[in-house]
Amino acid sequence: xxxxxxxxxxxxxxxxxxxxxxxxxxxxxxxxxxxxxxxxxxxxxxxxxxxxxxxxxxxxxxxxxxxxxxxxxxxxxxxxxxxxxxxxxxxxxxxxxxxxxxxxxxxxxxxxxxxxxxxxxxxxxxxxxxxxxxxxxxxxxxxxxxxxxxxxxxxxxxxxxxxxxxxxxxxxxxxxxxxxxxxxxxxxxxxxxx
Length: 194
Hints:
By secondary structure, the protein is mostly helical. It has a single domain, classed as Four Helix Bundle (Hemerythrin (Met), subunit A). 64% of the residues lie in helices and 5% in strands. The chain is built from 6 helices and 4 strands. It has a two-stranded parallel sheet with strand order 1-3. It has a two-stranded antiparallel sheet with strand order 2-4. Helix 1 (8-31) packs antiparallel against helix 4 (127-143) and helix 3 (72-99) runs antiparallel to helix 4. It is elongated and about 55 Å long.
């Protein structure tokens, strides 16, 4: 695929912040408690696969480090990468903390599951997927793979739709009217601009 030139600064900034993102995921896994009586959705695995294919499409390919680190474009792209990755990390950390023991990689509800509507969940029902989308865009900018993003984004969004639908079904089964009311007033991924 065609790669646009990037600076070493934006490339390194992306990977340093990506390490922080991956560490926050590892920490969420580490804090995760054992589960009893969980109801899972096998369909969400297809969503995970599509999301990962989207990341792979953007992540692999030629990287052209050709911009001077002090050029206006390099500084702008580095700032955008830092802003996107900082937002992705903050959103993931606050969302996984708000979920607490409810957090899981695969869509599922526990026998003692709680319907979380505070923190980032007061603005969107699935903020972790928004964090992942911000990461995907930062990956494309950090590596100069804009063209690949045009292919990857629809796959990522299709996988996200599968996952959000699976999670929403499980939550509706568990919480009924309380979840339906929450869903009617809270968008899935993109917060309302007020």
